[in-house]
Design the sequence.
């Protein structure tokens, strides 16, 4: 039987990934988000510089065919400031987790936004310090179990999470602030559009652009892998919501 | 759709009119090639597939020890599996015109290859 | 040649810009603040950028980012702010990124910080301690050269006196041998080519361009510092060949020591002075030679005794080494205090050699 005529829709891996082999956990949302980001970078034909923090997602930087600077925990927005001020015509992307950006680096990201640094800051938020084994961060939601909140985050003992996207949206220097997720194809598609909008606005010089992407970490959440997407929906998505929190009026 | 992982198989892929349950000829608009050895058995593709044409193996595992997805007739080439897969397992194709294929597992969709050693043998 | 009357901070800013510095970040902190003010005022006109960072941690990381693009980049503070930057300094060293650090110190209390560092890992920091503003102008330019030549963070140990005094001075641009092109710098041009560049302390590279890994990279960097230690030590020695009493000091304190050595020689005492110009690498061999035959080696530093450790390590006879300085800050705590005076120095030296002072 002859093979019917067909055309390629999606390659195994994006061209900007030098290798698709990685050691992140089954069901991890990080590479799902990253595929989307790289597709947009390719679509827009960008040659950016990537600055990555410390976490499981550092592997994303290692595997990716972009000029990269690995930064100290929390400090990528500060380093990105130095890069972008010296290379204003080069797109600059920072990639951090919630431990890196919202816990250690809250100061740096708020000030980079305040100064209106023309970078695109990406946050992979799974509500946990995954790389160190599953500990509480500033975005861990109430009730979420981690190794430092074993009975679930309790406001009396552990306080409340920080809604970083809404916090950034209040800062005048921030031009675009959005939150997406990757726990379903529909969400992935919405997130792709947010990332695209953020990068386009950087190219226009609009100011600080930010996309938070809620990702699955079944290992850090102590849930069976296939339940990751539902857990994300019921925890982080329930608490923080999805959508654009700040965007310029479209002309 | 939820995934049942009690070891007896996947229940979540029971969607009406799919190729998984039926017999005879099924309309297919697309197909995928599955890099079996890259899979880490996370099941996200099964949940994401709208026509429900992906099932995970229950008695076979890849060289790393993970079960992996198999394609059944009825793929629409929507590429949602590729969108949600964390491990770049899928290559998605669309037929220029829909074709009728036999119900059941689509032969030739699985791509088997030798994986590199997990540990550098010089250590 | 008549110079301009320049405050030290302004002179250093001009020297940095003359040396090609085009990025500066800093956080206000006495007595460093005027250096930041001058950079904010002058760098944009020179085609550069000065950012008032929101913390010292931000400042050193901004300078790191700018340096990663191949730009000559600097930051600074006083010792208290440098303390916050230590992780960043280690990161610079182990990433092999050139940045000039300015410690406009609140005195001499930061010798340990300048020479031992407070970061992590096997690294050293070339530290130059000028004695006055003209030297600071030279050292600033030399430091930008050394940073690029060795791909390392380097430090100027200044202080309140240098930062806030004004002298008539000219900024004469210095010539240096060319340094290697920065083919490691990031500008996005290699993105998407399959050969994208990466700056990462763990040095593992990317799949297409694997790196040596942390162990091999850090050993190579340690070897580099061992080489610098052999070749970059600088010092000034005065009348040490026949000295009985050797006075060792660094920075602005040594201006007073120079004056006292003249006095003592006139009084018939065979005094000599030794001044490390590089605090690291410490000019140990030269000190050993200068201290040979000395009955006393007196270390005059305005702290509880920091450089004296290095002096003891290298002096020809460590048993004759004495600390004659001490902690000394003025009432504000931000600059050297009463011990920075010829009277105090004279008293302590004569005391140490067992002589009394007539009519002083």
Sequence:
């Amino acid at each position: 039987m002859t093979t019917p005529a067909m055309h390629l829709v999606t390659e195994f891996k994006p061209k900007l990934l030098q290798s698709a082999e990685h050691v992140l956990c089954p069901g991890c949302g990080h590479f799902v988000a990253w595929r989307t980001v790289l597709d947009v970078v390719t679509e827009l034909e960008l040659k950016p510089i990537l600055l990555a923090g410390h976490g499981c997602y550092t592997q994303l930087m290692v595997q990716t065919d972009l000029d990269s600077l690995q930064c100290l925990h929390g400090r990528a927005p500060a380093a990105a400031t130095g890069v972008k001020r010296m290379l204003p015509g080069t797109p600059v992307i920072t990639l951090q987790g919630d431990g890196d950006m919202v816990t250690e680096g809250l100061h740096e990201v708020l000030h980079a936004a305040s100064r209106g640094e023309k970078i695109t800051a990406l946050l992979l938020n799974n509500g946990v310090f995954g790389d160190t084994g599953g500990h509480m961060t500033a975005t861990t939601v109430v009730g979420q179990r981690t190794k430092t909140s074993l009975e679930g985050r309790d406001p009396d003992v552990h306080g409340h999470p920080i809604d970083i996207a809404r916090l950034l949206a209040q800062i005048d220097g921030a031009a675009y602030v959005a939150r997406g997720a990757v726990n379903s194809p529909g969400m992935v598609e919405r997130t792709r559009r947010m990332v695209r909008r953020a990068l386009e606005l950087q190219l226009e010089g609009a100011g600080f652009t930010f996309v938070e992407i809620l990702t699955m970490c079944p290992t850090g959440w102590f849930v069976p892998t296939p339940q990751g997407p539902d857990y994300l929906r019921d925890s982080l998505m329930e608490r923080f919501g999805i959508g654009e929190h700040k965007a310029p009026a479209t002309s | 759709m939820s995934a049942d992982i009690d070891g007896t198989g996947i229940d979540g892929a029971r969607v009406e009119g799919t190729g998984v349950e039926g017999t005879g000829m099924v309309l297919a608009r697309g197909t995928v090639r599955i890099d079996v050895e890259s899979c880490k058995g996370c099941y996200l593709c099964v949940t994401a597939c709208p026509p429900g044409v992906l099932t995970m193996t229950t008695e076979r595992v890849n060289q790393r020890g993970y079960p992996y997805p198999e394609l059944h007739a009825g793929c629409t080439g929507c590429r949602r599996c590729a969108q949600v897969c964390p491990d770049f397992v899928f290559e998605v194709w669309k037929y220029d015109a829909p074709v009728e294929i036999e119900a059941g597992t689509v032969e030739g969709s699985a791509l088997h290859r030798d994986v590199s050693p997990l540990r550098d043998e010089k250590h | 040649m008549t110079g301009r009357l320049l405050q030290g901070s302004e002179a250093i800013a001009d020297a940095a810009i003359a040396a090609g510095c085009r990025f500066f970040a800093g956080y206000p902190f006495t007595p460093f603040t005027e250096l930041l003010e001058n950079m904010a005022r002058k760098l944009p006109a020179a085609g550069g950028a000065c950012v008032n960072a929101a913390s010292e941690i931000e400042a050193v990381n901004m300078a790191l980012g700018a340096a990663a693009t191949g730009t000559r980049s600097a930051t600074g503070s006083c010792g208290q702010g440098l303390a916050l930057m230590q992780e960043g300094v280690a990161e610079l060293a182990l990433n092999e990124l050139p940045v000039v650090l300015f410690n406009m110190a609140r005195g001499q209390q930061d010798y340990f910080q300048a020479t031992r560092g407070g970061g992590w890992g096997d690294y050293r920091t070339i530290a130059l301690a000028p004695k006055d503003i003209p030297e600071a102008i030279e050292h600033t330019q030399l430091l930008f050269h050394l940073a690029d030549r060795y791909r390392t963070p380097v430090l100027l140990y200044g202080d309140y006196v240098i930062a806030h005094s004004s002298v008539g001075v000219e900024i004469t641009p210095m010539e240096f041998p060319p340094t290697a092109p920065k083919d490691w710098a990031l500008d996005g041009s290699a993105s998407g080519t399959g050969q994208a560049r990466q700056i990462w302390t763990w040095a593992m590279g990317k799949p297409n361009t694997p790196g040596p890994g942390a162990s091999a990279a850090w050993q190579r960097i340690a070897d580099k510092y061992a080489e610098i230690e052999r070749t970059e030590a600088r010092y000034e020695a005065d009348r040490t060949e026949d000295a009985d009493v050797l006075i060792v000091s660094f920075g602005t304190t040594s201006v007073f020591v120079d004056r006292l050595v003249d006095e003592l020689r006139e009084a018939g005492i065979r005094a000599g002075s030794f001044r490390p110009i590089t605090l690291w690498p410490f000019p140990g061999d030269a000190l050993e030679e200068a201290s040979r035959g000395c009955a006393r080696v007196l270390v005059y530093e305005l702290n509880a005794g920091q450089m004296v450790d290095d002096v003891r390590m290298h002096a020809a006879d460590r048993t004759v080494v004495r600390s004659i300085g001490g902690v000394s800050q003025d009432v504000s705590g931000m600059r050297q205090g009463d011990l920075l005076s010829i009277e105090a120095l004279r008293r302590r030296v004569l005391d140490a050699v067992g002589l009394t002072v007539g009519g002083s």
